Amino acid sequence: MTQPADTAPETISGGHLVAKALKAEGIDVIFTLCGGHIIDIYDGCVDEGIEVIDVRHEQVAAHAADGYARITGKPGCAVVTAGPGTTDAVTGVANAFRAESPMLLIGGQGALSQHKMGSLQDLPHVDMMTPITKFAATVPSTERVADIVSMAFRECYHGAPGPSFLEIPRDVLDASVPISKARIPEAGRYRASVRQAGDPEAVERLADLLAHAEKPCVLLGSQVWTTRGTDDAINFVRALNVPAYMNGSARGTLPPGDPHHFQLSRRYAFTNADLIIIVGTPFDFRMGYGKRLSPSATVVQIDLDYRTVGKNRDVDLGIVGDAGLILAAATQAASGRVENGATRRKEWLEELRAVETAAYEKRLPRQLSGSQPIDPYRLVHEINEFITEDTIYIGDGGDIVTFSGQVVQPKSPGHWMDPGPLGTLGVGVAFAMAAKYAEPDKEVLCLFGDGAFSLTGWDFETMVRFNLPFIGVIGNNSSMNQIRYGQAAKYGENRGRVGNTLGDVRYDEFARMLGGHGEEVRDPADIRPALERARESGKPALINVWVDPDVYAPGTMNQTMYK
């Protein structure tokens, strides 16, 4: 007998359960490229008030979810279809994995009823994603959809953050079940606090080391921003008079000009310091696998991930936990001592400042160079002079972005974005998309290499379509110059142009074709006016700057892969 309509149980589809779980996590936007396997998620997002930004390539969707997480402190979400839709997103997930960025990728899958039958776009997605995620699973039933989405978000924050992946079979996603049978975790009640204050005894030992150190320094890495420990890091260096170096997302923790802000003297400090504190940065290739630190220095490493501490290099003290909480506790413990060492470090800071000033003055003529083609140092100098406290800076490229790492100094915390240790090219437009969506009142400026922009540049049109203005600057040398340098150094100049030379592309015309603002610059004196006009245009903009292809960044010439 049919149940009367007025007593029929309320039902809900799998796609709508996904949307409810996203809403519970605080997600207000998904980045996606459409496919028949996933459209019920869109329908649910419309009902839940979640914005759907559709891009032109799934790699961009995944990078944008990564970028959204970095900017907001909330996890990002990308939704892609099965098979090639999911494989296209692999690079973005891998980049988030190495960069410790929390995001969820949801991929479609053929119907469970067609399992192993060769359905459209069927691939073993979970097997492929497992090595590059913190959690990867198939949703087995419609009743479990919201529950497993919430589980995936929870796994993003186990130890150091990172990405999760879910595939949802088409019949699981499209089916409807009585809402009473579906587990829908309630917002704020399915995840615990992930902030760990570290071993109190270890924190006391760190305070003791600081009290006795004559020449300490601290490297503030990306986890300082990930944990939103900026204020604690600032209090630490100022209260204890410790010179600070910043990398990754921690750039901007201290503003340029701050007496404890150092950049160009890092190698000198690592060679001469008696106490080196590494916060939220692994001993990977960027740190010379730990070999760049003085063997006689006392080394302390603070990290969210137990597995990272002491990896590749022995440490004298390792503390696992939240960077901000640990630095705050160390500040309090050391400040309570009669002598915490702060006052006697004046000469050490003056010594480092002298090294810093000498390095800056040595490079300054290059930064002010009037040569044509344009010296890349001049381009990044002009960008550094142009950005404000409200400018989010993004670097997407090889050699040209290596130049910028020496010169461009963000003026506020959380205003620096780069791919991270995977070194992925093509993140720029996606990061700009996420940053401008999440922070519409901020200015977004992205410096591209011409090779990097070419990888995902068609999503410039997405920026136009969604009215997300940003300032794009392309350092155009018609080459993959970082690789070109290595080839010439290894095989000789006569083979330096094999497989790395690009066309002389007018990216300014490309921008105008897609409805944006575009300009070409050949004279260095025209860089600043072009930047001002791009800012005033209120459109997505590309400034195509022709830079000298025969000039390489010191970081390019010193890369370990060429040694």
Morphology: globular
What is the strand content? 15-25%
Rg from alpha-carbon coordinates = 25 Å
- On the 0 to 100 scale, the average pLDDT is 94
Largest sheet: 6 strands, parallel
Number of strands: 19
Low-confidence stretches: none
The order of strands across the largest sheet is 3-2-4-5-7-6
Distance between the termini: 79 Å
Helix content: 25-40%
Main structural class: alpha/beta
The total count of helices amounts to 23
Domain Thiamine pyrophosphate enzyme N-terminal TPP-binding: 13-122
Domain Thiamine pyrophosphate enzyme central: 203-329
Family: Belongs to the TPP enzyme family.
Keywords: Metal-binding, Thiamine pyrophosphate
List keywords for this structure.
563 residues, alpha/beta, six-stranded parallel sheet
Describe this structure in words.
This protein has 563 residues and is α/β, with parallel strands linked by helices. It contains 23 helices and 19 strands. The chain has a 6-stranded parallel beta sheet, with helices on both faces. The chain has a 6-stranded parallel beta sheet with strand order 15-14-16-17-19-18, with helices on both faces. InterPro entries: DHS-like_NAD/FAD-binding_dom, THDP-binding, Thiamin_PyroP_enz_cen_dom, Thiamin_PyroP_enz_TPP-bd_dom, TPP-bd_CS, TPP_enz, TPP_enzyme_TPP-bd. Its cofactor is thiamine diphosphate; Mg(2+). Residues 396-545 form the Thiamine pyrophosphate enzyme TPP-binding domain. Residues 13-122 form the Thiamine pyrophosphate enzyme N-terminal TPP-binding domain. Pfam families: TPP_enzyme_C (PF02775), TPP_enzyme_M (PF00205), TPP_enzyme_N (PF02776).
